[in-house]
Specification:
Layout: H1 2-24, H2 27-38, H3 52-72, H4 76-100, H5 117-136, H6 147-170, H7 186-189, E1 200-209, E2 212-218, E3 228-238, E4 251-252, E5 255-256, H8 258-262, E6 267-271, H9 283-295, E7 299-304, H10 308-318, E8 323-326, H11 329-335, E9 341-346, E10 349-355, H12 376-389, H13 393-397, H14 401-410, H15 422-444, H16 449-452, H17 459-465, H18 471-483, H19 489-502, E11 513-516, E12 520-523, H20 532-538, H21 545-553, H22 564-567
Parallel strand pairs: 6-7, 7-8
Antiparallel strand pairs: 1-2, 1-3, 4-5, 6-9, 9-10, 11-12
Helix pairs in contact: 1-3, 1-5, 2-3, 3-4, 3-6, 4-5, 12-15, 12-17, 18-19
């Protein structure tokens, strides 16, 4: 009996120590799991969410210390009561999760050993039985060491846990068990191997046959039935292979940039899953790091699940010089346990991950693409202009009323409050932006990519394009910048065509079209039309005029060269 009790005592104690250490290694991750339990659709205890991190640290330290106390026999009756209360509490949580299918992983062993809800519940039931057995036979639990030595061990364990917990909070988990650890290639982590098992589903088709409900089950194919179809439900029979990384995307304005950035060399990614909960004292450090990275030739982006208003507020307050893209909050929490956190990527491979406290550990070498002349103050000024340039314009240019309302809501606007004044507000902004940009162009020349980087190098061009009366004054300057490689030649070509059309002259590159009620789309007359495709190619257009017309007007549309004299009739 004594040997059995001794074995169970050590087994339970070691299990509590391992479980506690794994969670103490990542207390932020465990706090996220507690927040899942506190959610309205689980325990409905949202008032506890703000205390999740503190509660997580207390629970894991108690768990670990109790494991040590059980093994050495420290205050065995108090230890057994606390163990019993803790395992009863966790058994209830895991049963609730499993029975109601609320939280799919209890977090018992963190990310080191993910368990299904029923596996977690089974584990806790076994531990409960063992602890009850030990409680009944508590007299056979003999302490090790002297009372003073046991007290010293427990005190040392407590201090060590506090120190370790503080360290990982101020930095990152000492051991990374997640799919986004250093050395992992995200693209490869998202790949499903050839021949991997596929998920199998049962489809339960519900029909109404002569007033009676009948369910026909198939594995996908629509069943033959004379009844009226009512509904279909799916049931997972066998789970297929799920890649380690299956929820990673990078999006902006409805466009997917995942592949682009996973194939970008020397990329610094700043992650802040929720800007309303971010640590603001980390951003000056982030700004210093990213400014240095930009000058040394690195690409820099931010990833967040927060909306545009929060992003713009951050960029204005912290003078941030990079753009943010959208990624799911849960994914961002998984990638790095810091808000903000830093990830260094090279063609999708994670080279370094750091807490913002350790920003100085990110290794930045001077790349061949280094921009030592980068004017970050000017870049920030132009980026601010760009945000105001697009403050109302997307809403005003959208013709679909539902999409207009969606864009307005995204910007925090109620269209009914403005009653047609948005264009007036946008024109006032355009006038202010123009004044600033004209001063820059007149005193510093064109702020191209060697001075402000990409895509900031396009902002001055955009502002002038939105104030077309100024195009003639700066067209030659734009051409010189394009020849020097500071801005795309195609953008200047479009601007020149626009200027020529507005002055009733033949365009050069065929980029401008008009629309009339009677004749639909037509391409504005082109000078020396036989050479237009050569000019388009030289200017960097990827499509010929014929392909451009097909894309613009429909695949069956044919390019028709018009003369200026024909325009009046149209």
């Amino acid at each position: 009996m004594k040997k059995l009790i001794g074995f169970i005592r050590v087994f339970v104690g070691v299990l509590f120590i391992i479980s506690g250490f794994v969670k103490l290694n990542d207390p932020v991750g465990f706090s996220f799991k507690l927040q899942e339990y506190f959610a309205p659709d689980v325990l409905n205890m949202e008032f506890m969410s703000p205390f999740a991190l503190g509660l997580a640290i207390i629970l894991v330290i108690v768990e670990l210390v109790l494991g040590v106390a059980l093994i050495i026999g420290y205050y065995k009756r108090l230890t057994m009561w606390l163990l019993l209360l803790m395992i009863v509490f966790f058994t209830f949580l895991t049963f609730y999760s499993a029975y109601f299918n609320k939280v799919t992983d209890c977090g018992c062993f963190g990310d080191a050993l993910p368990l299904t809800p029923w596996q977690s519940f089974t584990k806790d039931v076994i531990l409960l039985i063992m602890i009850v057995f030990l409680f009944i036979n508590i007299k056979h639990i003999k302490p090790f060491f002297s009372n003073f030595s046991r007290s010293i061990i427990i005190f040392a364990t407590f201090i060590a846990c506090l120190s370790f917990g503080y360290y990982v909070l101020m930095h990152l988990p000492a051991i990374d068990f997640r799919a986004y650890k250093e050395g992992v290639n995200i693209s490869e982590g998202m790949t499903i191997p050839e021949g991997a098992p596929e998920a199998v589903f049962d489809y339960h088709w519900k029909f109404n046959i002569n007033g009676e409900e009948k369910i026909i089950t198939t594995q996908g194919e629509y069943p033959s039935s004379d009844g009226e179809f009512v509904a279909v439900e799916t049931e997972v029979v066998e789970k297929g292979y799920v890649p380690p990384i299956h929820d990673f995307t990078i999006e902006k304005d409805g466009e997917n940039f995942t592949e682009k950035f996973l194939n970008t060399p020397n990329l610094i990614v700043i992650i802040a899953y929720d800007l309303s909960k971010t640590e603001w004292n980390g951003w000056p450090v982030i700004k210093e790091l990213t400014n240095e990275a930009l000058k040394k030739g690195y690409s820099v982006i931010g990833l967040t699940a927060s909306g545009d208003a929060s992003v713009n507020d951050l960029k204005e307050k912290q003078n941030i010089n990079f753009d943010f893209y959208f990624t799911d909050a849960t994914t961002l929490k998984t990638i790095v346990r810091s808000n903000p956190g830093i990830v260094k990527l090279h063609n999708g491979t994670i080279i370094q991950k750091r807490h913002w406290n350790d920003a100085d550990e990110i290794e930045l070498e001077t790349l061949p693409s280094a921009k030592t002349s980068l004017d970050l103050k000017l870049k920030h000024r132009l980026d601010s202009i760009a945000r105001y340039d697009q403050l109302y314009r997307p809403i005003l240019q959208e013709t679909d009323e539902q999409k207009r309302k969606a864009l307005a809501e995204k910007s925090g606007l109620n269209l009914e409050d403005y009653s047609g004044d948005l264009w007036k507000k946008q024109r006032m902004i355009d006038t202010s932006n123009l004044k600033i940009v004209k001063h820059i162009l007149d005193t510093q020349g064109y702020p191209g990519k060697s001075v402000v980087g990409e895509p900031t190098n396009l902002i001055a061009l955009d502002v002038i394009e939105h104030n077309p009366i100024q195009i003639e004054q700066y067209l030659e300057l734009f051409k010189m910048a394009a020849e020097a490689g500071e801005i795309p030649k195609s953008r200047v070509a479009v601007l020149e065509d626009k200027y020529l059309m507005q002055n009733n002259k033949e365009q050069l590159y065929g980029s401008q079209a008009q629309i009339t009620a009677a004749n639909g789309f037509f391409i504005w007359p082109i000078k020396d039309v036989a050479m237009v495709n050569e000019r388009r190619k030289a200017a960097g257009f990827e499509r010929s005029i014929e392909e451009y017309v097909a894309d613009l007007m429909g695949k069956d549309a044919k390019f028709k060269a018009l003369k200026l004299s024909e325009i009046k009739r149209l």
